[in-house]
Amino acid sequence: MPFTAPLPTWNNPGQKPPDSTIERGWGAGEYPPADWFNWQWYTTYKAIEEIQNLVATTMDLANYTNRKDNPHQVTSQQVTAVAAIDGTVSGDSYPTGLTIFDATNLTGYPTLFGTVVTSKINNSRMSQWFFEHAFNDTQVGVYLRHWHTTPARWTPWVRIETTEGAEVKVNTHANKKDNPHNVTAGQVGAYSKTESDDKYETPTGAQSKANQAETNAKSYTDGKVRGGKIQSGRVTVSIPGNSLKTITVTFPEGFSGTPVVTASINNSLSPDKYPAPTIGVVTTTSFQITGQNTSSGALTFDYGWIAMG
Q1: H helices within 34-141, ranges in order?
Q2: How many CB atoms are located within 10 Å of the residue 231 CB?
Q3: CB 117 within 8 A of CB 129
Q4: Would you say 254 and 285 are in contact if contact means Cβ atoms under 8 Å apart?
Q5: Are 258 and 308 in contact (CB under 8 A)?
Q6: Is the CB of residue 81 less than 8 Å from the CB of residue 101?
């Protein structure tokens, strides 16, 4: 609170007493000169004035320190924007907190142009997002990776697919009517046109065979769609604490070319607290999946996968 008593102003500096008098004090019957009294009152006034000024300065500083209205007008760019960092640099070298920079013609990123946002609590809790610079509507991409300290490495970049995007791809394939798998009449057990022309059949028999052929064709075509163009499955992996584990999964049926494979955690192990699995070597008959357990104890993960090719 501010001072309320008036300051005892005294402007005559007087004369300081000798050190010998200051040491022994007043003697009996002594009458000090007026200058000595003036010196005492002037010195006392100046000491009190100095204390009051110091207290006022301290209060002003405390009030300024406690301000929450950003008195220096610091911007978010000054706080989070950093110089561009190459994608191969260790995550340990990043500052703690949220940082952002523009990545242009750097190595280690999914494309040559993009915005990089890094969230780092410590060296063991660090994620990095890459937002592709879209020059047109087909170049919109978002990628994610993590930094691990044991061993010290970046995980591979994973492109984030939207639910709508995946659904569109599946629906497009499911709605194709041009026999994309080139199923023949012989494969489904149906007569060719020549064979049909050379045979005679009763209406009942012809209908029965036609029904059977339709059943066979549907069963075979459904199986081909599931096994040839799109396949999916689940795999259970037991992973020790704070470690990675890679296994090889064999497709139910081989692909004619190398398919695209994605995977995610299915079971209720708080998927948001554990890294998504990564896909390694993919061939026409199998693929590798790597899971990570960031907890201290061993856990069993149930991963779901889907392959399209």
Answers
A1: 34-65, 76-80
A2: 20
A3: yes
A4: yes
A5: no
A6: yes
Question: Residue 123: which of 151, 143, 100 has the closest Cα?
Answer: 151
Count CB-CB contacts under 10 A for residue 203: 7
**3-state secondary structure at position 263:** strand
Cα–Cα distance measured from residue 114 to residue 129, given in angstroms and rounded to the nearest whole number: 10
For residue 39, give every residue at least 6 positions away whose Cβ sits within 8 Å of its Cβ, in sequence order, or none.
Answer: 13, 14, 15, 16, 17
Q: Say how many residues make up the chain.
A: 309
- Token pair for 88: 């191969």
Question: Per the omega criterion (within 30 degrees of 0), is the bond before 151 cis?
Answer: yes
CA distance 87 to 108: 4
CB burial of 140-168 (b: ≥16 within 10 Å; e: otherwise) equals ebebebbbbeeeeebbebbeeeeeeeeee
Please state whether beta strands 230-239 and 142-149 pair in parallel, antiparallel, or not at all (unpaired): unpaired
Q: Which pTM value belongs to this model?
A: 0.35
CA angle in degrees (0–180, nearest 5) for 77-79-81: 50
Question: What is the full per-residue pLDDT of the chain (309 aa) written as tens digits?
Answer: 678 888 999 999 999 999 998 999 888 888 889 999 899 999 999 999 999 899 888 887 777 777 777 777 666 556 688 899 999 999 998 999 999 999 888 999 998 889 999 999 998 889 999 998 876 766 678 999 999 988 999 999 999 877 776 777 778 877 887 888 887 777 877 766 676 665 555 567 656 766 675 665 455 445 554 445 799 999 999 999 999 999 999 999 999 999 999 999 988 667 778 899 999 999 999 999 999 999 999 999 999 999 998
The one-letter code for the residue type at 264 is S
Number of Cβ within a 10 Å radius of residue 39: 19
